[in-house]
Specification:
The protein is mostly helical. It has one domain. Helices cover about 75% and strands about 0% of the residues. It is built from 13 helices and no strands. Helix 1 crosses helix 11. The chain is globular.
């Protein structure tokens, strides 16, 4: 019983740390290759890494007699739609604007989960989710949201957030039919196919000489394996065992990790508003997980347990 409650929380914490650190590695290579090339490299490495684990039976996946078309739809929403909207939205919106909009994700997840999954949150949980989102919003606004916000960028980032919210709800729904590893494997496969196809038909060309650059490969391996495979598995496992609403609030913890990494690794400044926002996020996460959610979907552990799949 204790593991049933502890493991999803640990998955959420570890996933937030991995995602929060990913911006450091992305920052190392974003000027060396196009975003589309990075996504292509990232998901190609992610898929082949998982395929090696599957081939040698380190992990087990089984798609027989399962609704594959629904799985393809799920995998198209995340990562293809979510990453595409986010990536191209960043061309027209600033990083601070994108951060502020993305902070609304737990709220969208809570609303969609209440409608489609019949998840009911207590008043304390609702307030905690809003407090956590408010902490990220506060940091974003105090950091300075540039004035010339582009409407196209705003719309694309909103569509990215909505895609991620729909993904969270579908991950909970599909966790009865697919394991967390199967969901992750499908996501990496569709991501590899779609981003390579888009790169193939676009004017951009893949620069294969980047493979010979150690710094680029170190960053892309982190993004491909840890930030894609591991974080996606942890997120799918957390959603399957915790529910969509409570899981959504963990995504804001990555903001704290990014701030800490920026201070200690990049020597960025740490202001009072960072501390206030961080406290709001942490208190919000704790409050959202203080009491179980009453839901129409079973809360017993789904087949996504790491112990169930790792040989």
């Amino acid at each position: 019983m204790k593991n049933k409650n502890t493991l999803p929380v640990l998955a959420g914490l570890l996933g937030a740390i991995i995602i929060g650190l990913s911006f450091l590695f992305l920052k190392n290579i974003v000027n060396e290759a196009s975003i589309l090339s990075i996504l292509s490299f990232r998901f190609t490495i992610a898929f082949f890494t998982m395929s090696i684990f599957v081939f040698f039976k380190v992990v087990r996946v089984d798609f027989r007699n399962k609704p594959i078309l629904l799985l393809l739809l799920f995998s198209f929403i995340q990562p293809v739609l979510a990453f595409s909207f986010q990536t191209y939205g960043m061309k027209y919106a600033t990083s601070s604007e994108a951060g502020v909009i993305t902070a609304l994700l737990p709220i969208f997840v809570m609303l969609l989960a209440s409608i489609f999954l019949k998840e009911r949150t207590s008043l304390i949980q609702k307030g905690s989710i809003l407090l956590s989102a408010g902490g990220v919003l506060f940091i974003g606004f105090m950091s300075g949201v540039e004035g010339d916000a582009n409407m196209l960028g705003f719309i694309l980032i909103i569509l990215s957030v909505l895609s991620m919210a729909v993904y969270s709800v579908l991950a909970r729904k599909f966790s009865k039919q697919f394991t967390a590893l199967e969901l992750t494997y499908a996501m990496m496969a569709i991501g590899m196919i779609m981003f390579n196809f888009i790169l193939l038909i676009s004017p951009e060309k893949m620069d294969y000489s980047l493979i010979l650059q150690p710094d680029f490969m170190l960053s892309i391996i982190y993004l491909g394996f840890f930030s894609s495979v591991v974080s996606s598995f942890l997120t799918n496992y957390m959603i399957a065992n915790m529910g969509a609403s409570r899981s959504g609030v963990f995504m804001n913890l990555s903001t704290i990790v990014s701030i800490i990494a920026g201070v200690f690794i990049l020597n960025e400044a740490f202001y009072t508003y960072h501390l206030v926002g961080t406290i709001c996020i942490i208190v919000g996460v704790i409050g959202a997980n203080m009491k179980g959610i009453h839901t129409g979907v079973s809360n017993k552990p789904i087949q996504g347990s790491p112990v169930h799949h790792l040989k």
